Amino acid sequence: MKKPILTLTSAAILLALGACSQTNTSVQSNPMNTSASSDVASNILLQEYKGPYGGVPAFDKMRKEDVKPAMKAAIDAHLAELNAIANVDAAPTFENTIVAMEKSGQLLDSVYTYYGIFASNKSSPEFREIQREISPMLSEYYSKMSQNEKLFARVKAVYESEEMQSLSPEEQRVTLLTYNQFARNGATLEGDAQARYAEINKQLAKLHTQFANNVLHDEEFYVLYLDESQLSGLPESFKSAAAAAAKSRGKEGKYAITNTRSSMDPFLTYSDERGLREQVWKTYYNRGNNGDEYDNNALIKEILTLRHERVNLLGYDNYAKWRLEDRMAKNPKNAMDLMQKVWPAAISRVEQEVADMQAIAKKEGHDITIKPWDYRYYAEKVRKAKYDLDSDEIKQYLQLDKLQDAMFYVADRVFNYEFTPVPKGSVPVFHEDVVVYEVKDKESKALIGLWYLDPFARQGKRSGAWATTYRGYQTFGEKKPVLSSNNSNFVKGPDNGATLISWDDAETFFHEFGHALHFLSTDVQYPSSQSGVRDYTEFQSQLLERWLLTDEVINNYLVHHETGKPIPASLVEKIKRASTFNEGFKTTEYLASALMDLYYHTTDPANIDPQAFEKQTLNSLGMPEEIVMRHRSTHFGHIFSGEGYSSGYYGYMWAEVLTSDAAEAFEESPGGYYDQDMSEKLVKHLFSIRNAMDPADAYRLFRGRDAKVEALMRDRGFPVSSSDK
Q1: Which residues does 160 contact at the CB level (< 8 Å), separation at least 6?
Q2: Which E.C. number(s) belong to this protein (predicted)?
């Protein structure tokens, strides 16, 4: 499964920021007029974006010491805007209440852009201290907003008014989203309950930040340095990258295995040194679980306890019921039912995969029992034996820059977009590796936005891959271009040579680009319409992965990094025949995390000891001993470093049902994945609409019916039962 988009604080806070952002007009003409501090007034993070493209963030001038005063000033400014709306004398209307709220908060959105860059792309021990101070500020801000009784009364009045029926569908949905933002987050509480709700949010904000920073610490400080004698089995491309990583850390002559997936995964796949594989595996999967000051076990218990208490105040039995109420799944049972349909087939496939591995180990004379640190290694041997397919051979045709060109080709054919590099220095960036592109409509040449790409791993950058916006689509005031970004952690090629990546990483690259295209193709009126429904928002990006295996991409962009020759048709055929290979492992490690997420949030936390609970729950599910959760509890940042995916990690699979079903629609069309009519329907109904309508309705407009789970089962090579048809 792919990594998720930026998660820093609680989902509630992110929702508040998202709902009030992406605009350029506020109730006050200049919120900073209220500031008495000359230091704050000169703070670059509080200045209006300047320069070309409607203004761009001053990434080259930002300083971490400016973040805290800027955040405080921006929070104060937004709260002042909201208080002004709450105290308007005129009767509440959609225009003077909902629209006014949609127009507010642009200063806070701007500051949060810089905050997000420091937290995700340029972190440091010093900034983590700043984060710890800012997290409770953000929580307090959100509580003040959601508990503004006068403001909620006005929103409720609009929601219940006769005017509501005369509003456009998007206006009605924005009103509903705004009302729920208050009603589902403590606005209906009174007295002690309301105060306690706010205090819980404040405590959770601190804990989420601490959890994320603990994981980041373990990723940064656990690096394994090897010498030449310990590299048996590793491909030359990996050894070169590991040598470069060691050199950048002052260990020239050594080889660095960093504690990130992009380094761990290939090492476990190719290293002949079983003892080292075990060491690397344990170091990676024990992040946040080392019994030291960065251990996350106690934090998990505390987070779950506070979340449970908070939803109890709102009248919900458990956290998952509250969280899923406004998702496509609607309730934990529906989410669990979907996963339980797939789980038996997944673990059954694992049994077959392990049997194949044991047979190869025995044939090679190794009297061993397959362990988790052996799975990737022997799976690669099985791949070669069954399909004559070598992952490293494929990698020689997967150059990062060529894959980027391939993504631009897809954007051209499907979205009618053209990408042109912006000259170095004309747009400020926060690191020399960041490159920027103009995005225009191919026919009209109208500017749509900018695309920032930060592709390489480095110290201080969180692991994984994600997409975000520095400015979303906006129609209020002066229309300005979208500022979108993709962020990855590829290991840079040595001496400016080609950066070669795995097939999985290539899929992830396309996946995250799908998020960027989602941002760029938005065509809605209100900022709240740009918010995402978590078990739907991954669908569009998952679908874009399908274009990687189209003939047009394969024939033109998958070329050998040394010879320039296209990937052989025979190798492509092997890739396609092996498309469901190791699907037991991939599905099981993901589903284990998704199931644990729901069990954590449907169980009374008083009965939970994280390590024991993880072990007992997985045992009860029949979890194969040869596999662990993709994200073990102590580094499960999706659900414990924020609330964006908490009780919602199942959403990747929910979205994959839509993905598999939609992919079949393209495959059945005359023009395949480049069919013009299908492309137009894709952009109109599934990309541009965002959250301006119920996602289920949007999908029906595209497909003519609901998605069917049998498409997912076919995709994974699992048997399709009659009940799934």
Answers
A1: none
A2: 3.4.24.70
Q: Which DSSP state fits 64? A: G
18 plus 159 within the same structural domain: yes
Tokens 């397919």 sit at which residue? Answer: 389
* Rounded Cα distance, 613 and 649, in Å: 18
Give dist(CA 355, CA 379) in Å, integer.
11
Q: 75 with 32, same domain?
A: yes
Strands 255-257 and 435-441: unpaired
Domain count, the chain: 2
Residues 58 and 134 in one domain: yes
- State the pLDDT confidence band at 35, using cuts at 50, 70 and 90: very low
Q: Is the pLDDT of residue 181 over 70?
A: yes
Q: How far apart are CA 297 and CA 599, in angstroms?
A: 16
176: how many CB neighbours lie within 10 A of its CB? Answer: 15
143 and 269 both lie in a single domain: no
Instruction: At 401, list the tokens.
Output: 């820059």
DSSP 3-state of 498: coil
Residue whose C-alpha is closest to residue 106's, from 480, 502, 467: 480
Range of the domain at 232: 222-285
Pick from 58, 181, 180, 39: which is nearest to 110 by CA?
58
182 and 242: one domain?
no
Beta strand extents in 264-378 (DSSP E only): none
Q: What share of the chain in percent tops pLDDT 90?
A: 85
Count other C-beta atoms under 10 Å from residue 151's C-beta: 23
- Quick check: 575 pLDDT over 50? yes
Let me know whether 248 and 162 are in one domain.
Answer: no
Q: Mean pLDDT over residues 444-455, rounded? A: 97
Q: Tokens 């492992």 correspond to what residue?
A: 585
Give residues with Cβ within 8 angstroms of 29, minimum separation 6. none
Q: Which CATH number does the domain housing residue 28 bear?
A: 1.10.1370.40
Task: Find, among 583, 597, 652, 603, the residue nearest to 629 by Cα.
Answer: 597
End-to-end CA distance of the chain: 25
DSSP 429: -
pLDDT in tens, 228-270: 999 999 999 899 999 999 999 999 999 999 999 889 999 999 9
* pLDDT beyond 60 at 722: no
| pLDDT, tens only, 119-137 | 999 999 999 999 999 988 9
Residue 669 in tokens: 């069309």
**334 part of a folded domain:** no
Q: Determine contact, residues 46/73, Cβ cutoff 8 Å.
A: yes
- Dihedral over alpha carbons 295, 298, 300, 303 (to 10 degrees): -130
The amino acid occupying position 42 is S
Kindly state whether residue 58 falls inside one of the protein's structural domains.
yes
User: Looking at the structure, do residues 110 and 232 belong to the same domain, yes or no?
Assistant: no
Task: Give me the chain's average pLDDT, please.
Answer: 91
Q: Using a CB cutoff of 8 Å and minimum separation of 24, what contacts does 548-551 make?
A: 548/406, 548/506, 548/507, 548/510, 549/575, 549/576, 549/579, 550/410, 550/672, 550/673, 550/674
CA distance 482 to 562: 37
Structure tokens at 130: 């700043």
Q: Is residue 71 part of a domain?
A: yes
Cα 169 from chain centroid (whole Å): 28
Distance CA 78, CA 98 (A): 15
Tell whether 184 and 37 lie within a shared domain.
yes
Residue 675 lies in a domain: no
Alpha helices, DSSP H only, in 160-285?
Answer: 163-166, 169-183, 191-221, 236-248, 261-270, 274-285
